[in-house]
Amino acid sequence: MSKYWDAPNQLRFGPETTHSNSLLPANHNLQKQILLRSISDKVQISSTLLPFYLFQVPSNLMEGVEASERVKRTTARLCSLCNQRKAALRRPKTLEQICRECFYNVFEDEIHRVIVENNLFKPGERIAIGASGGKDSTVLAYVLSELNKRHNYGLDLFLLSIDEGITGYRDDSLETVKRNELQYGLPLKIVSYKELYGWTMDEIVKAIGLKNNCTFCGVFRRQALDRGAALIQADKIVTGHNADDIAETVLLNILRGDIARLSRCTSITTGEDGPIPRCKPFKYTYEKEIVMYAYFKKLDYFSTECIYSPNAYRGFAREFIKDLERIRPRAILDMIRSGEDFRISTTTRMPEQGTCQRCGYISSQKLCKACVLLEGLNRGLPKLGIGRKKGGSGEDQEQSKRHLENKGLSLHGKHGNVEY
Amino acid sequence: MHLTLEFGGGLELLLKDSVKLHHVDVKPKSGEDNVTMRDLLTWVKGNLIKERPEMFIKGDSVRPGVLVLINDCDWELCGNLDAELEEKDVVVFISTLHGG
Amino acid sequence: MAVCGSACGSNCVPKDTEGVEGERLKRLSLEEESSVRRCTKCGEEEARKECNGLCAGCFRAYLYGKFKLAVTSNAMISPTDKVLVAFSGGPSSRVALEFIHEMQSKALACWDASNSQALPVFTVGVVFIEECAISNELSDQADVAIAQIRSIVSGLSPPSKDLHIVPIESLFSSDLRKLVGSINDATGQEDFVRHLRMVSLQRVAFEFGYSKLVLGLSASAIARHVICATVKGQGYSLPADVQYVDTRWKAPVVLPIRDCLEQELVTLCNLESLKHVQVLDRPCASINGLVSSFIVRLREDNPSREHTILRTAGKLKPFNFNKLSSNQYEHVPSRLRPKFQFIENGEPNSPEVLCPICASPLTATELASTRCAQQMKGLDIKEMEAFFWSCCQSCHFQILPKEETYMSCEGFFDLLPKPMVKRSLLRDEIKDYLLDDS
Questions:
Q1: Disulfide engineering: C216 pairs with which of A155, A420, C96, C177, CB 3.0-4.6 Å?
Q2: Model pLDDT for residues A103-124, shown as the tens digit of each residue
Q3: What are the two backbone dihedrals, phi and then psi, of residue C260, each rounded to the nearest 5 degrees?
Q4: Where is this region: Disordered (chain A) (predicted)?
Q5: Does any CB of chain A come closer than 8 Å to the CB of residue B9?
Q6: Residue C312: closest C-alpha in chain A
Q7: pTM given for the model
Q8: Every domain range in chain C assigned CATH 3.40.50.620
Q9: What ipTM was assigned to the predicted interfaces of this complex?
């Protein structure tokens, strides 16, 4: 399977990308050509098979523009792909400077390629796009509907939103999703915690306070997506998790010692054994590019943190990854690669999958987590199910997570990221 | 120097009344002709940010994860902190750290 | 004590028998009135805050216990070994040296007392690699450090230990400063120097006939390495570096204080006034520096975080070379040999292909890429090309020249120390390799 760093990928897309990672002046490009020729002189190497190291970005570009350049902004630099229009951004993945139009092309092409190479969809499938109204899912909905038309995927796309019942947060973001419904012409299904569980998050917070409410929300949301997808008879759910999110999850699972999650958090498709598989077409897409895309395309998205976890995005891990990206943008993809390559022993005990006796949802226990939490809520014992997990392996992570939450220094990523 | 500043992706919450768009007048430091992005950040921190400045600034630059565009061009292409601003420039700050 | 494996947190203290425990609790409750806190283990001495509630004596015993458990349960040191301790001057390797010394002294006392004297006692040497030639350290600073190291080693009680002070440039014929300077990436430079240091240590071990190399890597250092390797895309090879034993090298590398936290080691140095050399602070513009400060933040938040990271890495599957093979003990008397042997598991002994620079085992993808290039070139392949193609992706990115000209690649290759070059798949091996494969 080809991966993002493979040279062939970079070369397969049209002649203009042959020099795709050249951010150097023209004469340097020439030198590179000479090198390629000198190395491949005797045997005619087809360009798609050259080893990856010849396609690396010169590291003098690594240190950024700051030191090396005092170029006046007015002497605008040209796009390194089309060489015609003014460059508008620097791609974190390749450090190319490209114009808007070329950016749209490579951005969409890459996602198309990820979809094709990983066989994410089959013609005729009904796909539920988990839509929160935030940047990732908005861009995902837009790009998927474009690609579906352009490349004739033959998919039935739906927007699927969860209404947790958080006044002033979710009701606003749902308005965004409703506008998206009209803008992209995608049918929207909203399922609410209230109708599924009989409780809104506002009510839950009233009952249990601000501590641990994220546990409820996370567990409920995961199920709600599956149930909503089942209601609209979807074959698959796609979510907007991007490369930064996945790198962060890899890191968090290392910090928590959660080897089971570590082994599956980098899979592009999960839950294939369950009722509805989920996949992440943005697995290799940088957050920066998603935001740039949304900005340039003037996509309508909603960006406010959840009022019940106001500082979740302050997590150490997230900050570390952003700092890292500044020093070495490639590190995000490297972390994903590490996650894919970890040698996880097959003897590591993975939790056995069964179904919940009460609601039939997949569960490794007699009752699924949502039912346990719900029972606690309904019996007025909201602490039920939050404490120590049965069966050793998860215990320690729960504990350490709680430890952090208690101190208000959540290791959580952004809202909802932690469930995989 | 007249500049238009726009804050998005949740950064507007750090400003008074969560206003996204600001038309401002920034003077060059005494003895200098130009306003650089470095100067502008200092100015924004001192004059616009009302709460949690650490969400916007880290060290002498923007916090990693905040994107900056000068006239719709990635500031990484303009020299980052050393980029010199011109009359009527539009500078956009977008946080990538919120929601998703 | 055996329960305190690598997995246990720093607060794990071996439980005494119940009677003693009851006694202790009684005493503790009495103590509460007087403000002096007693050691939670022996209940006798005054507990110290920096020692996890233990007294100084029990704290030392606790750390030595971890060390000894690591050594014995992994058969790190056999009686016939000649052990070389890599001493950087820092607190971690200082404690490693101290504990190895103590273990040797005890073994010697046993030997003196024993009638048969069948088991010889291992010998110990110390090595310090002086890196002025490739770092920004000033030579007079290094001279001070070397003088201190000499006094530390000569101050140890008998048996005396050979001390090898080796300037790194004396081991290689090429211009190391130029070589390191030609690496553009700050992180790549740091990592390359680390790889050079390992090659140097191995050279010294080889020249003086040492059979084991002891590194003073603490749990904290390994936790940092786990995150660094993950961030550099080395997830596959990571488990190779975090085990107690690593036989990729001629002199197998062992990590006896792998389970001790850096802070515990610093505390011990302070308590026992173990002199250690101020390790020079290097600038931290690299990813390694960023990871270090991240780990410090995590530690402040939760002191057992480093252990958790280590435990995660411990769950990854080690490589075949992460254990000592039984034939390394053939000179041990046969009745004692089983003690030092591991049960061979049934796994096929497929040799890993290692990156010639960092010695990481290559992933299947990397191998495929290497193979593909080599197949195309066939036997025409130049030594330099073979070398570049057999490096791992991480080294490609952060160490090898990015100026994609033949000249700079060749220039870099010419400066590389021979042991590294030799590690790469050379033409003949490639031929075998290709044949094997088909």
A1: C96
A2: 999 999 999 999 999 999 999 9
A3: -100, 135
A4: 387-420
A5: yes
A6: A257
A7: 0.82
A8: 55-344
A9: 0.85
